[in-house]
Design a protein that fits this description.
heterodimer; A: 250 residues; alpha/beta; Rossmann fold; 6-stranded mixed sheet; 4-stranded antiparallel sheet; 9 helices; B: alpha/beta; D-Maltodextrin-Binding Protein, domain 2; 5-stranded mixed sheet; 20 helices; ABC transporter substrate-binding protein/permease (chain B); MetI-like (chain B); Iontro_rcpt_C (chain B); transmembrane helix (chain B)
């Protein structure tokens, strides 16, 4: 992962976002390289989820530049649907399609968007199900799954489009504690395989273990960023110190 | 989107016109006129035991048409709608025991006066009302748009009574007999005929009609001169050769049973059902037809409105909201009158009653459908759309493949509810003269005065149809969940 010729996958420059008087993001700039795993931490309401959702334009910035995979998505002329095909997203609440079975959830986008024919999409879906350890759930309704299973299916669904970048928005926050490990394992394997990943999470242990870089958000700003060792062991920013003292206690 | 909407609208109107014409069209090489009447007006206009329209007016018209070589399609409706249909060019002429007054002369051209009449007033048999003075504080029942009503209103202040309006004579008489109101004003011969045939009223001025005047056949002022001339020519002839006197004698001399059927036919529910089987079936058929077209087209229109309502384009959303607001806000009957009686004068084109009726249902029920369709789509969790979009699905495809299938499931109970409402709302269309189940009931009651039995039969028929509709809907719902 510490490749010499690193390529920038995500480039964010001077992005601002307000909801009315609430200035949720202030002049954010961040670059993410290919194969890099960036974990964003910070208190609730610090803007990290809003920032993540801007990377595939589920939220639009008020100003600034966002370039993902070489496409300037802050430019109105860019076909956002095309860009999104290469950005996988995993949500806190899974958001599996309730009107489809597990297999159909995974196959829907590649088939609808003409990326794969039905047979190829099914083959790929079954491979992905094996990867996330849920081969036996292919034909069940998504409502019969546990939260941990749902989230692993959601990861498989995102991977079915063969994305270059994966975004995770608090993927384990809605899970029962005993389910968290299975989901984190899948994510760890994905990181090991070289996927570029941007993750918003409260799992500090996971961040330490998997992240190439940890970014600390507070009050709509990036207060500090660096290697997990630097951020967790020798934090410089006072707010980060305070934040860590609270979460590490728990 | 706009283009599609316009296209759908045009197709719908054209389709509806065909439906209407298919039902109402007649081969027309001889002049064929549309004549309206109020068939709850014996002895002038009513339905006989075979459900044929008859009475003094109808026989005069039939005889004259035969002599003068024209044909006509008779449209029975309330008196008020009957005259307004002619005034708005929806029909060519009206014969409905219509008094010739100066006010009406401003709108209509009348043919030769054919029957001397005047206004009478009546109270419940055994009432202690002796003179007009006793009406102080009482309620007087009058029929909308009649000269009896005009007269009652002209003396209302002087005698200090309240008025209540009705659209058909039988309901009006029963209101007086049941003491909801205490007197009525109407055409003297009509009240006398009703009394003679057993209606429990007492006529207060049998020998002295108020504002004695004449009945006339009417066309819209300045229109249909040919029809009017033919009527006058034919009338002169039947007056001369005695046919006219025979017709009048036939209806005034005979007891109502001659025309309305024997006691046996009218005094049991089964007898009424048997004697009027074909009328009930025809009414039911018309109701089912209106319901089916209403449900199918209103659902399509409602889905279009609902989809527009969740569009990304604010203008399209605005159009949907406005259409829903307007047509959900208008009472169904106002909309029906507007389309059937108001619109033709403006667009210069006749709209058949059934077409107007279906259009009314589609616009009204479609607005309600549009509102719950939009609501159903909005009720689908936002995350579903975000997940679909994040995979790269465009908005329209995310709607079609993810949001709509889930939304429609949420909506199914609302659809079933709306279907039942649509079926019931068809009864309101009797106001524009569509001979559906409710109007059929009105006509039969006006003939046999068996309000309780006839309305009970009509109610049971509605319940049966609604039950069938509910079963069908539930069956479809179950299948959609499978």
């Amino acid at each position: 992962m510490s490749d010499a010729q690193t390529k920038v996958k995500v480039h964010v420059e001077n992005v601002n976002k307000s909801y009315g008087d609430n200035h949720v993001l202030r002049d954010i700039s961040l670059d993410v390289s290919e194969n890099e795993v960036v974990v964003m931490i910070g208190p609730s309401g610090s803007g990290k989820s809003t920032f993540l959702r801007m990377l595939n334009q589920l939220e639009t910035p008020d100003n600034g530049t966002i370039v993902v995979d070489g496409f300037d998505i802050s430019d109105k002329a860019t076909d956002i649907n095309k860009v999104r095909e290469n950005i996988g997203m995993v949500f806190q609440n899974f958001n599996l399609f309730n009107n489809y079975t597990v297999l159909e959830n995974i196959m829907l986008a590649p088939v609808e968007l003409g990326k794969l024919d039905k047979a190829a999409a099914e083959k790929k879906a079954r491979e992905l199900l094996a990867t996330v350890g849920l081969s036996d759930k292919a034909d069940v309704s998504v409502n019969s799954l546990s939260g941990g299973q749902k989230q692993r299916i959601a990861i498989a669904r995102a991977l079915a489009m063969s994305p270059d970048v994966m975004l995770f928005d608090e993927p384990t926050s809605a899970l029962d504690p005993e389910m968290v490990g299975d989901v984190l394992n899948v994510m760890k394997n994905l990181a090991d395989s070289g996927m570029t990943m941007i993750i918003v999470t409260h799992e500090m242990g996971f961040a330490k273990q998997v992240a190439d870089r940890v970014v600390f958000f507070e009050s709509g700003k990036i207060q500090e960023s660096g290697t997990p060792e630097a951020v967790f062991n020798t934090p410089k920013n006072a707010r980060l110190q305070e934040f860590l003292s609270k979460v590490m206690h728990a | 989107m706009k283009k599609i909407k316009k296209y759908v609208l045009i197709v719908a109107i054209v389709l509806l016109s065909f439906v209407g014409m298919g039902i109402e069209a007649h081969a027309a090489d001889k002049p064929n006129y549309v004549i309206t009447t109020d068939a709850t007006y014996p002895p002038f206009d009513f339905q006989d035991k075979n459900n044929q329209y008859t009475g003094i007016d109808q026989e005069i018209l039939k005889t004259i048409a035969k002599r003068e070589g024209f044909t006509y399609t008779l449209k029975p409706m309330s008196f008020n709608s009957a005259t307004q249909s002619v005034a708005s060019d929806q029909a060519d002429g009206v014969i409905a025991g219509m008094s010739i007054t100066d006010e009406r002369r401003a709108v209509f051209d009348f043919g030769t006066p054919y029957y001397r009449s005047g206004i009478g007033w009546a109270v419940k048999k055994g009432s202690n009302i002796k003179s007009l003075k006793d009406l102080k504080g009482k309620t007087v029942a009058i029929k909308t748009g009649t000269s009896g009503a005009d007269y009652a209103l002209s003396i209302q202040k002087q005698y200090g009574f309240k008025v209540v309006y009705f659209n058909d004579s039988d309901t009006l008489y029963n209101d007086v007999i049941n003491d909801n109101s205490q007197a009525t004003f109407g055409d003297l011969p009509v009240i006398q005929y009703a009394v003679k045939n057993g209606t429990a009223l007492k006529v207060m001025n049998p020998k002295a009609p108020i504002q004695a005047g004449w009945y006339g056949f009417a066309v819209k002022k300045g229109k249909n001169a040919q029809l009017l001339a033919a009527f006058n020519k034919g009338f002169a002839a039947i007056k001369k050769d005695g046919t006219y006197d025979k017709i009048v004698a036939k209806y005034l001399g005979a007891s109502a049973a001659t025309f309305t059927g024997s006691k046996k036919d009218n005094n049991s529910t089964w007898g009424i059902l048997k004697a009027n089987r074909s009328a009930f079936l025809q009414g039911l058929w018309q109701t089912v037809l209106l319901t089916v077209f209403g449900i199918v087209l209103a659902s399509l229109w409602g889905i279009i409105l609902g989809v527009m309502g969740v569009s990304q384009n604010a203008v399209v959303r605005g159009i949907s909201t406005t259409i829903i607001y307007i047509f959900r806000g208008l009472p169904l009957m106002v909309l029906a009158f507007f389309i059937y009686i108001g619109l033709p004068g403006v667009i210069g084109m006749k709209i058949p009653a059934v077409t107007a009726g279906i259009l009314t249902l589609v616009l009204n029920e479609g607005a309600y459908t549009g509102a719950f369709v939009r609501g159903g789509f909005e009720a689908v969790d936002r995350g579903q759309m975000e997940a679909a979009r994040s995979l790269g699905l465009p908005y329209s495809r995310a709607m079609r493949r993810v949001i709509m299938p889930q939304g429609i499931r949420i909506m199914i109970p609302s659809f079933i509810n709306q279907f039942i409402i649509t079926l019931k709302d068809t009864s309101i269309l009797s106001a524009i003269g569509i001979l559906e189940l409710t109007q059929t009931g009105s006509l039969i009651v006006s003939r046999n005065s068996q309000g309780f039995r006839v309305w009970a039969i009509v109610a049971v028929i509605y319940l049966i149809v609604i039950t069938l509709l509910t079963w069908l809907s539930n069956w479809v719902e179950k299948r959609s969940h499978a």
